[in-house]
Predict the structure.
Amino acid sequence: MKHVTLVFLRRSDEILLAMKKRGFGAGKWNGAGGKMEDGETPLQAAVRESQEEIGVTPRNLQKVGEIDFYLKEEPDFNHYAHIYISTEWDGEPHETEEMRPQWFPLAEIPYDQMWGDDKYWLPDALASKRFKATYKLDKDDNIVESNVTYLNEGEEF
C-alpha cells in the first residue's frame, strides 16, 4: 500500500483542480498531491506536493477524508489517499512540468475528465463532511466496489 495525498484549494464558490500532465493519472483533473516520502506525515507530504506541483504552500489544511483505492485489473495496486481542503495558501498557483492548475466554479467541476469515483466523494469533501471510503475501479474507470463511512464530530481518522 502506498500512502498518497490530495489537496484541493477552495476560494468562495470555486475549486482549484490541476490537469495531470504525465505519469499516473495523466489527462485527468485532480487535486495536487502524490506519494509520501519516508519519514513524512500525510500533512507534510500534502504541503510538499502542493509546493512542487502547483507552486503554493497551503495553510490550515483541513483533513476531510481517507480513501483506499484499488484497481481491479492490477491486484498489486493500492493507494491510500489522505484528502485535504485548504482555503488559505501562500503563493499563486502556476503550471509546472507535472500539473496545469485551473479554477472551476463548484457548479462546473469537470467530473467527466476526473477519476470515476471523484463525483461521489468530492462533493462531500467540499461540504466538509469527513469520511473514510474504499473504491475499486475497473480498467474503464467504473466503480466495481465501494464503501463509505462518515465520521462523527470529534471522531479521529
Summary: The mean pLDDT is 95. DSSP finds two helices and ten strands in the chain. The first helix runs from residue 42 to 54.
